[in-house]
Amino acid sequence: MAPGVLFMANNMRICLIGEFSGAPDGGLKNVSRITCEHLAANQEVQVLTGSILLRPSVLRRFLSFRPQVIHYLHGASLPGLIMLKFLSLLAGRGSKSVVSALRPSLGRWARKFVFLLRPDLVLTQSHHFERFFRDHGCDIALLPNGVDCHRFMAVDQEKKEELRWRYNIPRDKKMILYVGHLSSSRKIDIFAEIQRDPQAQVVLVGSSDEPMDKELHDQLSAAGVIIIEEYLEDISELYKAADLFVFPVEESGDIDGGRKNNGRGEAIDMPLSILEAMACNLPVVSTHFGALPRLFMEGGGLLYRDTTAEIVAAVKSMAWAQPVRTRLKVLPLDWQRIIADLENRYRMILSRDRVSSHGLVRQGQIPFAGEGMNEY
Question: Which of 59, 211, 304, 350 is deepest in the core (most CB within 10 A)?
């Protein structure tokens, strides 16, 4: 998708800033791409890539577009907030600024500037980051990630076996799947232990733009784990082929990106891979990560476990668990509904100047139509 591309429709003029180049096999890229595609169906959308924002030609296109909303899709960092503030001032008083805090990264000294650089709205997912931005004077709203429930769905056993044959995956074992960055900081060495079960076949699908650590690759391969590192055009086929999905990434609870020890900064607050696995009605074993416990109660094929021993034990029991109702938990999160809620957010902040004098919109009190989904 070329920077500066304009999608013509009616209604609002929205400038989206994000990562749109390369294969969409990461959470941030996928959220950027999907958000753009859905918004473009009903709005006027301009797409900009963060790395080229300061080029004169890009700024001229930006100004000629006259955006009403400037939305930095993953700009919850000090450079992102500075850039968004600059563009908001450049666009003039009529425009509103929005940041999606999918993967906040703010060092301790950078947090001091959040109040001064605060956008008109911060979209959060977990309680932790919601409290952080609210405590720093930001208006916040919950907006979960979505999932394409038409593309990701359960299949019968015959189709599972056909897909496993296509990908050269044993059909006589329980297929245990993980999709995401293949980094040691993500605790994926646990899959070597899971692979020890003679009835299990672990399959890891990584990102094509982030090579796996060779030592970790060799360790997992020696254990019998199947590793797929190239970009797959239809990742849904691997979910449909699987029997169980495992997400072992640890939660740090910090906002500095967690890059030093646990890789918290590498995963978005509401991982798309878990939503996609649940849409395919797979049993899921996950850590208490990010916004997941907020939106999904345990049960119906979803288990939260945090230690290595707990995860390994849960995998052994969950691979044969019945009944599984994880798909029902994510049906309310279809992307069309999420984007409709996002459009409502835009309209609310655009009308804020007209309604704030009547006390209809106050700091930190913009509700989400799906709040309370934890009942699922």
Answer: 304
Structural contact between residues 70 and 40, judged by C-beta atoms closer than 8 angstroms:
no
Tokens encoding 206: 């990584």
Tens digit of pLDDT for each residue in 331-367? 999 999 999 999 999 999 998 764 443 333 334 444 4
ω before 56 within 30° of 0 (cis)?
no
CA angle at 255 for the pair 253 and 258, rounded to the nearest 5°: 75
Residues 6+ apart with CB under 8 A from 37: none
Beta bridge partners of 96: 69
CA distance 1 to 22: 9
Query: What's the rounded Cα separation, in Å, for the pair 376 and 295?
Result: 8
Work out the mean pLDDT of the chain and round it to a whole number. 85
243 φ/ψ angles, rounded to the nearest 5 degrees: -110, -25
Give which of 106, 145, 105, 141 is closest to 124, Cα–Cα: 141
Does residue 285 or residue 365 have the better pLDDT?
Answer: 285
Q: Are 302 and 346 in contact (CB under 8 A)?
A: no
Query: Is the distance from CB of 34 to CB of 144 less than 8 angstroms?
Result: no
Per cent of the chain over pLDDT 70 is 84
Its pTM surpasses 0.85: yes
CB 126 within 8 A of CB 255: no
Q: What is the rounded CA–CA span in Å between residue 139 and residue 214?
A: 44
Which amino acid is residue 244, in one-letter code? L
